[in-house]
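Translate structure to sequence.
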């Protein structure tokens, strides 16, 4: 993979109490031919803090993918990059994934310390908050809401979704067009990952979602919400994770059938209250009515 390079991420480095940034810097100084290559894997919208953490994740786990040749594309490299993005989304955005995936990225991230990482509530905590919402003071009476997206956020995210729009358009052409027989999630996932990003999937049992009509709340099944770079793409319902995710991806791909897509800020319900959220909007939408948000990837005030 890297010739005679030995990655300095073993137990000895950890036992010495050395910081991950120090270990990475030493490694790249000893292997300058890798420095430029690994920097090319950074996402355009990543903060420096997010990239440093994800870079350490990639370098720590390269030995687990012996077929990777720096500078050459390969399925192994694609998988490692995807796992690094999944881990970063979980750490910095609070995204949740199927348990086998969570177990995998937790194992791969062993020994990585992210300073001042954001804290995110679990689904059970979120549902507990919604049940107690009636006991909380109303806005304007000592209530501190989440800050939500900044006014500049739509403009900052728009270039990425312009590129994603083009990638999906070409992908659908090669697939024979949008229709019921294509793998909607796979098309969306591959296009997002080709743009050096990843999809965030959140699953919640239908019965646990607040503010649903009584008849719907008694139904079984799961609801899946898809986001990319904190922007809401779509929601889908199914009997299991695969069907719910497929339906959410289908709804998301429908947006890309319009002449353009635009990132906008809309009001949505989250945990029983109104919040401002980033939403991908198409030019054919006739109203701004959205299902309740299952996640809210913005820091508290």
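Result:
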């Amino acid at each position: 993979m890297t010739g005679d390079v030995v990655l300095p991420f073993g137990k000895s480095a950890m036992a010495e109490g050395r910081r991950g940034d120090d270990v990475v810097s030493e490694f790249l100084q000893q292997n300058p031919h890798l420095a430029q290559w690994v920097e090319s894997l950074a996402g355009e919208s990543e903060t420096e803090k997010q990239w440093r953490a994800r870079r350490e994740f990639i370098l720590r786990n390269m030995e687990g993918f012996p077929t990777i040749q720096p500078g050459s594309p390969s399925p192994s490299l694609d998988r490692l990059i995807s796992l690094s993005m999944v881990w970063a989304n979980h750490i910095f955005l609070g995204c949740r994934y199927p348990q086998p995936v969570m177990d995998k990225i937790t194992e791969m991230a062993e020994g990585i310390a992210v300073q001042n990482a954001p804290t995110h509530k679990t689904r059970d905590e979120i549902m507990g908050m919604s049940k107690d919402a009636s006991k909380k003071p109303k806005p304007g009476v000592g209530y501190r809401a989440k800050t939500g997206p900044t006014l500049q956020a739509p403009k900052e995210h728009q270039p990425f979704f312009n590129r994603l729009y083009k990638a999906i358009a070409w992908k659908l052409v090669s697939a024979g067009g949008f229709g019921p027989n294509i793998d909607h999630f796979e098309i969306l996932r591959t296009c997002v990952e080709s743009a050096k990003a990843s999809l965030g999937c959140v699953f919640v049992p239908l019965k646990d979602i607040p503010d649903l009509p009584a008849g719907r709340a008694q139904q079984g099944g799961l609801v899946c919400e898809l986001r990319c770079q904190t922007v809401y793409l779509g929601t889908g319902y199914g009997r299991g994770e695969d069907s719910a995710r497929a339906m959410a991806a289908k709804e998301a791909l429908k947006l890309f059938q319009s002449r353009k897509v635009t990132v906008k800020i809309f009001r949505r319900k989250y945990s029983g209250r109104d919040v401002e959220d980033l939403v991908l909007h198409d030019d054919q939408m006739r109203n701004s009515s959205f299902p309740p948000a299952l996640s809210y990837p913005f820091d508290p005030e």
